[in-house]
TrEMBL record:
The lineage of its organism: Eukaryota, Metazoa, Chordata, Craniata, Vertebrata. The gene is LOC113999228. This is Olfactory receptor. GO terms for molecular function: G protein-coupled receptor activity; olfactory receptor activity. It comes from the Eukaryota. It is found in: Cell membrane.
Length: 306
């Protein structure tokens, strides 16, 4: 193929060749997506309806649930469709939309997790300044900055990637459209280097956020250990552990997928790794928060009992 204009569709990686396994993957993804949709919808409803959750953390948790819903709805429906009908294709426009939405929601989620870490830091290390530093206007600005930065990242990467000429076929080694696999099909050296440069800038931004999260939690745990009462320490840990668990799950799955040694690479392991970072975190995040947060559990109980 001489250029990208001759590519009307891409071929995604199939989960299995046997019909029975394809149907198994369909039902598994259906169960995961329904659980994620239900859990995140409950979190959204609880935060919106219960005035006890009209706090900065509740506001950020609502935004996080929106990104989780976006992540699940970007990759899983197409994978379910292909498994059910035994196909592998995705249109060129659909692939571009998938790349844009996936980067948008994942980058926004990580920036929101960074902002939520700042919320926990202020709540525990600077409680007297909490109302000043995290007022409603400041929270709205931080959330808007996270969404805007994610949107700008997604726009730049998608526009550059899909402007590259493609001459290495149209088969992607992934069950959804992802930039590294599309770059393998490119025959433009300058465009490839431009996208690598954008990825490096994005990586530096992500690393900076991660360093901020680590530094904040070092300060948080130092402050928690100085709390004299056991009840106070327990309350502080219960505030931080759900967020720390979500950050750890998000970062560990992405790091394992992208930085695993080549000796561990295989088609089946790569497929499992991609599911781990693209599907599992958005599905588990609401369960982690609802199981550890007493206010959310109380709000959900009120909703269930009318």
């Amino acid at each position: 193929m001489s250029n990208s204009s001759s590519v009307s569709q891409f071929l995604l990686l199939a989960f299995a060749d046997r019909r029975e396994l394809q149907l198994l993957h369909f039902w598994l993804f259906l169960a995961i997506s329904l659980a994620a949709l239900l859990a995140n919808s409950l979190i959204l409803s609880a935060v919106a309806c219960d005035h006890h959750l009209h706090t900065p953390m509740g506001f950020f948790l609502l935004n996080l649930s929106l990104t989780d819903l976006g992540c699940i709805c970007t990759t899983v429906p197409k994978a379910m469709h292909n498994s059910l009908w035994g196909t592998r294709t995705i249109s060129y426009q659909g692939c571009a939309a998938q790349v844009f939405l996936l980067i948008f929601f994942f980058r926004t989620e990580f920036y929101l997790l960074t902002v939520m870490c700042y919320d926990r830091y202020v709540a525990i290390c600077k409680p007297l300044h909490y109302g000043t530093l995290l007022g409603s206007r400041a929270c709205a600005h931080m959330a808007a900055a996270a969404w805007a930065t994610g949107f700008l990242n997604a726009l730049l990467h998608t526009a550059n990637t899909f402007s590259l000429p493609l001459c290495q076929g149209n088969a992607l080694e992934q069950f959804f459209c992802e930039i590294p696999h599309i770059l393998k099909l490119s025959c433009s050296h300058s465009g490839y280097l431009r996208e690598i440069g954008l990825l490096m800038v994005s990586a530096c931004l992500v690393v900076g956020c991660f360093i901020f999260i680590v530094f904040s939690y070092v300060q948080i745990f130092r402050a928690v250990l100085r709390i004299p009462s056991q009840q106070g320490r327990h309350k502080a840990f219960s505030m931080c552990l759900p967020h720390l668990a979500v950050v750890s799950l998000f970062v560990s799955t992405v790091v394992f997928s992208y930085l695993k040694p080549p000796s561990l690479s295989s088609p089946s392991l790569d497929l499992v790794a991609s599911v781990l970072y693209s599907v599992v975190p958005p599905a588990l995040n609401p369960f982690i928060y609802s199981l550890r947060n007493q206010q959310i559990k109380d709000a959900l109980r009120k909703m269930m009992t009318g």
